[in-house]
Amino acid sequence: MCELFAMSSRVPATLGLSIGHLARHGGAEGPHKDGWGLACYEGRDCLLLREPRPACESLLLGFVDVQGVRTCMAVSHLRLATFGARSLQNTQPFVRELGGRSHVFAHNGDFPQLLEPAVRPVGRFRAIGDSDSELAFCALLERLAPLWDACTSEPPPLSERLAVIADFSRGMRALGPANFIYADADALFIHAHRRTQPDGQLRPPGLYLLQRACWESAPELQDAGVHLQTVRQEVALVASVPLTDELWEPLGEGDLIALRNGRCHDAQGYWRSPAQISLRAPSQPAMTAVTHSQ
User: Fold this and answer.
1) What pLDDT digit, counting tens, does each position of 189-232 carry?
2) Nearest Cα to 231, choosing from 223, 239, 221, 240?
3) Helical spans, DSSP H, in 72-212
4) CA separation, residue 79 to residues 20, 89, 105, 280, 284 (Å)
5) Is the model's pLDDT at 25 over the cut of 60?
């Protein structure tokens, strides 16, 4: 199965360390050799880097790792091809415009039913490649489009977006493993499901969450005449497997979380601590906030 990674931070952070760890899984320490991609946001737009080749062999990704990319929101994907040729058009993350913003999607799992002609989604958003993951992205945007079309400048309320994504997630879980990361330039939406574990069994967790909070100096502001001793940094990282020795929190089957500025938010848009934030997309229509059972 593919591997996912995402970051949300309060102030711009450098991705070098996490990307370096992830890249080694792309053909060196793991089988994910069919492509890699990285989307880094700056405002409403994002820098998209993709190659249909092993991440561990990529000079471009090596440059990114050494130089570092500073961003407040990023999505990355390592591909192990199941449906669709090994090509750029099938390399994730995928990007589309909606509401004057770049929307990004990356998926880990299989939706073979979406490839059937009778089920294949057709509408405003069309797939460029021939992968099931891109078709799922187009289907998600079709559902979200009415919310964004009704807004002029500000994003739709977070609670409304979460409700649509929760309903979409329920349908996707019925088709196959549905771990995905979706970003709309305002927030990151993380849906965890099942993943093939080291013993070969398909079961949760499908994704892990790590939250960091620290004080760090900002010497670069001194060159601009701003002398700020320290700045509060909050970072949330999401990955298919823990990338460090820190205590990563496994997300439960069907959990849906929203990340903004390094913090988790519930269905009403309120901040919640990691122990409170499990937003499960249940079988009933309403989105509810529940706590993890230990």
Assistant:
1) 999 999 988 898 989 999 999 988 876 655 554 554 554 456 78
2) 221
3) 132-149, 158-173
4) 16, 12, 13, 26, 33
5) no
Pairing of strands 36-42, 70-78: antiparallel
Looking at residue 86, what is its pLDDT?
Answer: 76
Task: Give the pLDDT confidence of 229-249 residue by residue, as tens digits.
Answer: 567 888 899 999 888 788 889
Closest by CA to 12, choosing from 70, 99, 96, 86, is 70
- Angstrom CA distances, 230 to 211, 227, 233, stand at 19, 9, 9
Domains detected in the chain: 3-272 (3.60.20.10)
Q: Which residues are 117's β-sheet partners?
A: none
Q: Is the pLDDT assigned to residue 290 strictly greater than 70?
A: no
Distance between CA atoms of residues 93 and 250, nearest Å: 23
Average pLDDT, the chain: 80
The contacts of residue 255 (CB under 8 Å, 6+ apart) are: 190, 191, 192, 278, 279, 280, 281
For 13, 177, 179, 233, the CA distances from 272, given in Å and listed in that order, are 22, 27, 22, 17
